[in-house]
Amino acid sequence: MFSAVCTLLSNMNINQKLYGRSLGTAKRTKILATVGPATDSYESIFAMVKAGVNGFRLNFSHGTYEERVQQIKWIRKASKELDVHVAIVQDLQGPKIRLGDFEGVRNVTSGQELRLGYGVEASENLVPVQYDLSKKVKRGDRVYIYDGKIRSTVTSVRDKVVHVRIENDGILMKRKGINLPDTDFGGDIITKKDREDIVFGAENDIDYVALSFVQTADDIRRLRKMLNNLDSKARVITKVETKLAVDNIEEIVKASDVIMVARGDLAVETLPESVPVVQRKIIGLCLQYEKLSIVATQMLASMMEQPEPTRAEVSDVATAVIVEADAVMLSDETANGRYPIEAINIMKRIIIYTQENSTVKAQFATSHDYSVPEAISSVIIDLAKKVNARAIVSETQTGATAISISSWRPNLPLIVVTPEKHIAQQMALLYDAETFVRPVDKFAATKLTDFLHSQNIFQKGDTIVTASGKYPGLIGGTDTIKVRTLE
In the chain, N or C: fewer CB atoms in 10 Å? Predict the structure, then answer.
């Protein structure tokens, strides 16, 4: 099925832009992979980094803190040994809205009345749930069970029991997920477990915290306040997986650092056919507002069991690259699949082939007043193109300048120089960026450029455009643009 494409990808002559001492490929779109039972060893994590993974997702719906501490150590060790910066993402569980335990499989039919109760024993027409829905839902709200396979509508809420009318024939199985596209949780999405996990993450070198079940920008602000109170330097990833998040998407993008398009639940909460359009809209907004974007869920799902993906999956990954997402994510493919390294290798090859051969250019709105950083970034990129620059070098204390430049997608290698290790780790997911940690120095960019020249990554005659600050180490101090031709 995929053999012809694989052969083409393997044999192609890629014009690789090797602009970092540790860069094995020239991926512009980065790869985020999930650690799970199939990859829970140092050898597996090392192999994934070597294969091209730029960041790891730790799913806090599963596992213990002891396991997480060990995995973080393994990731940092592999990062150091391979001399690359790697991001670590803590994915919070969020409200666990699932059916409870009951025996066997239950058949349900269209028109049937069913009761959903919290803290109850299963009986005829009464099914336990793991979350008290009676406090949130109202009459008329839709309730989708088992990944949307069973659809129902709330008819009443009485005595802490939710009564629903089933709308199609099907089956129910214990612990299957429930989606509530019409239900407003009123900001009650960070659970007690999440709060404990956030504290753990703040103490254990986490780079990003991914917030599940976001509905409004206020949800993000609450998380950010918690992180600030813990003196955490982690950035916030918002998982867009609810209908209300889509309805409030522009404000959510503005309030976030990164947006993850979590297409599994999103397809259930909205119309499945709307997801590709929503995905493109979100990536466009991320480019406009200088935020990172991640496309997630079932990108190479067939590779959980098969060594090759389907043509549809190849097209899916390629589409994310064409619209210039910052990163694409592997979930079960690397957490539980039989072919985690093969999935990474194929995803990398699709990314490189697509970026080198696609003639489509992503478009995003520019009809807004530029901020000073946006204006500076625009000038840097315009200048780099006019002088036919080999690369852009950004000195940054916080990563803001690098993100701003990258959001314009100049299709020039972006080299990020920062004195902060955690910034280097976070920028590992930034589109087309390679990051180096260097001490604060007014000649930091020049010294790094000389180093890359000495490694034959830059050549004599290459022109480099540098963005820096007059006062090194000053946050928000980018005010100087230099053009240098190497001799």
Answer: C
